[in-house]
Write a structure and sequence with these properties.
This protein has 353 residues and is of the alpha/beta class. Helices cover 40% and strands 14% of the residues. It has 12 helices and 9 strands.
């Protein structure tokens, strides 16, 4: 088997749209547009934002609105969801929203779907009002969305307008083998959340590849792994910047909500041994250091997993340092012209040659 090199694969961005300590959500949105324009110039393939709710440090709750905002502020980069948490939404509404986006920004909108609520149970109830639906309905709901976005069905009593016929590219997201198997069975691209749930990565990739069926346009599996990265001009600077990431994940471990904190000189006193171990386990696939260090570690990761694309989340407080990190990373990967970034070029069959 030929070993993949970073320079052979594309790189993308997952933006959680963090709210910085002392700043506002409006500042976050401005930073997101600034970053999206920056990585577009650098040749990143896609720019995804994730749906979260009731979290003081994340401003991406209205994910669809932000996708439209970023698409309108950029020119060619693919913009999408990493992801839309389908249990929170009626499939028809999702299809109408993304059909509208795809009509406004042709060939640029992507729909990543997840089966978690993206929040706690109380907030999930506030979102849905009725919890009779469950994550077990996810496969059926995915198929409904796919049908609504597909070719018009003669005699259909319910249609997504706009939506039908747009064939918005769909991705299944996951942090376990459940989504991996579903993506394989449906012949869809798969994105794994190894940036916070690393323990099932290898099993999920194996499950996806083993279960993959080329029943649609995708003729072979296409796997994306999301990882964390903090790159800087020196390893010392990167280690300093990375303390923001550690503080953010302490909040996850504790179940507390805080805005993104600035970096600190030392984490001593900010976590106990048990919390430190838990955070380090969650951040197993995090790459921190200067260009040489991060490149070598990312290359080893790609060789180990065989993924087709890396998607990078960067928990960096300072906006310029964040942009610099993505600038360093861009030099490792295959630059994208964005019009050629989706897997339906190299990985899809040409239907009408």
């Amino acid at each position: 088997m030929t070993t993949k090199k970073l320079s052979d694969i594309p790189v993308s961005v997952l933006d959680l749209v963090p709210i910085l300590d002392g700043k506002t959500a409006a500042d976050s949105f401005a930073n997101t547009v600034d970053l999206a324009r920056h990585v577009e110039r650098l040749g990143y393939a896609r720019y995804w934002m994730a749906e979260h709710h009731n979290m003081a440090g994340i401003a991406s709750s209205a994910t669809v609105v932000l996708i439209g905002h970023v698409a309108g502020a950029t020119k060619s980069i693919k913009v999408g969801s990493g992801g839309i948490m389908l249990p929170n939404h009626a499939p028809l509404v999702v299809a109408e929203q993304f059909g509208t986006l795809a009509t406004l920004y042709p060939n640029r909108i992507e729909l990543g779907l997840g089966r978690a609520p993206g929040t706690d149970q109380v907030t999930a109830h506030a979102l849905r009002r009725d919890l009779r639906g469950s994550v077990e309905d996810f496969p059926q709901n995915v198929m409904e969305v796919k049908t609504f976005l597909g070719p018009p069905e003669k005699g259909a009593r319910v249609r997504a307008v706009p939506g039908e016929g747009t064939n918005v590219p769909m991705y299944i997201l996951g942090s376990s083998t459940f989504g991996a198997q579903l993506a394989g069975i449906l012949g869809l691209p798969y994105a794994f959340a190894s940036h916070f749930a690393p323990s099932h990565l290898k099993a999920a990739l194996h499950m996806y590849r083993e279960s993959f069926q080329a029943i649609g346009d995708l003729k072979k599996p296409y796997a994306i792994a999301c990882v964390n990265a903090v790159a800087a001009d020196t390893t010392q600077e990167a280690l300093f910047l990375s303390t923001t990431m550690y503080q953010s994940f302490i909040n996850v471990v504790r179940g507390t909500g805080k805005t993104m904190q600035p970096p600190v000189k030392s984490m001593d006193g900010l976590w106990d041994d048990q919390e430190r171990y838990a955070v380090q386990q969650m951040l197993r696939y995090s790459f921190v250091g200067d260009a040489k260090t991060v490149q070598e570690e990312m290359q080893a990761f790609v060789e180990e997993t065989g993924v087709d694309e890396l998607m990078v989340a960067s928990h960096i407080y300072d906006q310029e340092a964040r942009k610099r990190s993505y600038e360093i990373l861009a030099g490792f990967f295959k630059a994208s012209e964005n019009k050629d970034s989706a897997p339906n070029n190299d990985a899809l069959e040409t239907i009408n040659p």
